[in-house]
Amino acid sequence: MKKTIWTLILTVGVFCSMQAQNMFGKNPYKNLQDWDEQQMHYGYFLGFNRYDFKYEYPQSFYDKYGSNQIQVEGDTGFNVGLVGNLRIMEYLDLRFEPGLYYAKRTITYPHINNPIHKVKHLSSTYIHMPLLLKVSTMRTGNIRPYLVGGFSESLNLSARQNSKEDNYTGTFRMKKWTSNYELGFGVDLYFSTFKFSPSIRGVFGMQDEMIRDGNINSIFTGNVDALRTRAVFINFTFH
Predict the structure, then answer these.
(1) Which residues are 81's β-sheet partners?
(2) What's the pTM value of the predicted model, to 2 decimals?
(3) In 10 A of CB 26, how many CB atoms?
(4) pLDDT tens digit string along 87-138?
């Protein structure tokens, strides 16, 4: 997960640096000079994600299994959605960014010897609805960095919350709804006819999302205190 975060940060940084050198120079003509004075404006975004889980265990788990914690490996997913931006004041905006997020994860249980149950491949589709505050710096030429943070609700369309089957029959169950907090940064790049904003954001689930198996001593869920979503989003927004 840490490698993924740094890779995405480096990608955004290199891209922005190239754009700054090639297009904005030392004293560029300011494109879209009145753009940020709009009370409301809209846009859309495309991007990528990397979803993970954070497992929390009781001490009895470590006593029994040692360091053989459940392992989660995320795969790159994609995002698409809309942006609504409300200007509050010169350096502060309120944003609503509803989107559709498709994610893949592989879960490995090192303490399980049965090869049928040892590895699970999980595909999830989320409707993600964040409400964010965007705090911008002073614009320099055609570049304006910003920080963004807020809260979100996610609807997991693949949760299988109400399924009567569980992990023993191959069904990984989660709660449909979860709440998150989000933190990130980005940069606005002003072109002659549109504004382009690459950004990176971390998403941190605040609730336990796991649905326990019917067996209280389940080898999949019996030793888990909580399961929370962790994710990294990299979005390319066009206004």
Answers:
(1) 45, 99
(2) 0.84
(3) 5
(4) 999 899 999 999 999 999 999 988 888 888 899 999 999 999 999 999 999 9
Tokens of 17: 């640096």
User: Which residues are registered as beta bridge partners of 143?
Assistant: 140, 189
∠ CA 166-74-14 to the nearest 5 degrees? 160
Strands (E), 90-225: 92-96, 99-108, 119-136, 143-156, 177-190, 195-205
Domain range annotation of the chain: 2-238
Residues 6+ apart with CB under 8 A from 155: 126, 127, 129, 176, 177
Which of the following CATH numbers is that of domain 2-238: 3.10.20.30, 3.30.450.40, 2.40.160.20, 3.60.15.10?
A: 2.40.160.20
13 vs 152: CA distance, rounded Å: 26
Provide the terminal-to-terminal Cα distance of the chain, rounded to the nearest Å: 30
Buried b / exposed e over 56-95, threshold 16 CB at 10 Å, is eeeeebeeeeeeebbebebeebebebebebebeeeeebeb
